[in-house]
Design goal:
By secondary structure, the protein is an alpha/beta fold. 50% of the residues lie in helices and 11% in strands.
Length: 253
């Protein structure tokens, strides 16, 4: 990635201490709660009052709230701001940021969200961004399975899948999993399905996010059905060696 940025003003830092001391605003995007906790504790150790810390990772709500409260002890401004839109959204600058935190803090850094994405929504206090993200990804994963089944039925009924795409993308079945990220190879805009599901949003990461959703379901005594079935489906994919492939491969299993 730094090779692509070598002709820009972006600079590479070799350690967290140097990065922290040279920055006013620090954005982290890490794979899980443990990584966010470890990195944030190191940042906080070297921070100075008034700095902004924004975590764009997708992690559990408890860890998100915990690390932000530790940052408050050093008089830092924080937000949790996980993103949605995938690699395609990142490349096109159309990500959506789901944000938790203080309104004034949000307004002070919203210009950054506007540069990196298309939408930024303050969902509530700290942790609310993470809560919104796990709801979103549980819906996305379930929807992707339904999209795959719809195309499978259409194929067995003898429909031209390009024409079926045109119908679904402009009718009541319209959704991101159809319009932007169609999981059927050669149908719709280019997506990981056209590259044999290489790249994109890894199945193991979707499984991790679904695990966060299931944990939240248990903690809140929420009754769900399809979300739990979806979790089990992705659990099978991970155990069958599909962890590194894009999550839309679920339509083939």
């Amino acid at each position: 990635i730094f090779e692509k940025l070598k002709n820009t003003k972006v600079q590479k830092s070799n350690d967290i201490e140097t990065l922290t001391k040279q920055s006013d605003i620090i954005i982290t995007m890490l794979p899980d709660g443990k990584a966010s906790n470890d990195v944030w504790l190191e940042i906080i150790k070297h921070s100075k009052p008034g700095q902004y810390l924004i975590d764009c990772s997708t992690i559990d709500v408890k860890t998100s709230i915990s690390i932000q409260k530790k940052a408050f002890e050093k008089d830092l401004f924080t937000l949790d701001a996980p993103v949605s839109g995938g690699v395609i959204g990142a490349d096109n600058g159309t990500l959506t940021f789901m944000v938790g935190g203080n309104l004034e803090t949000f307004n002070n850094v919203k210009f950054l969200f506007n540069i990196m994405g298309k939408n930024s929504i303050l969902c509530g206090d700290i942790g609310a961004g993470q809560s919104a993200k796990i709801c979103n990804n549980m819906l996305l994963a379930s929807t992707m399975i339904a999209v795959g089944e719809s195309f499978k039925l259409g194929k067995n009924l003898g429909l031209d899948l390009d024409k079926l795409f045109n119908v679904l993308s402009t009718s009541s079945g319209s959704c991101w999993a159809v319009n932007t990220y169609c999981p059927i190879k050669g149908v719709g805009p280019e997506s990981p399905s056209d590259k044999d599901y290489v790249g994109g949003f890894a199945t193991e990461l979707m499984f991790k996010d679904l695990g966060l959703a299931i944990d939240a379901v248990k903690e809140t005594n929420t009754s769900i059905d399809y979300g739990l079935q979806t979790f089990k489906k992705f659990e099978e994919l991970v155990h069958n060696g599909k962890s590194k492939l894009d999550f839309s491969i679920v339509v083939n299993h």
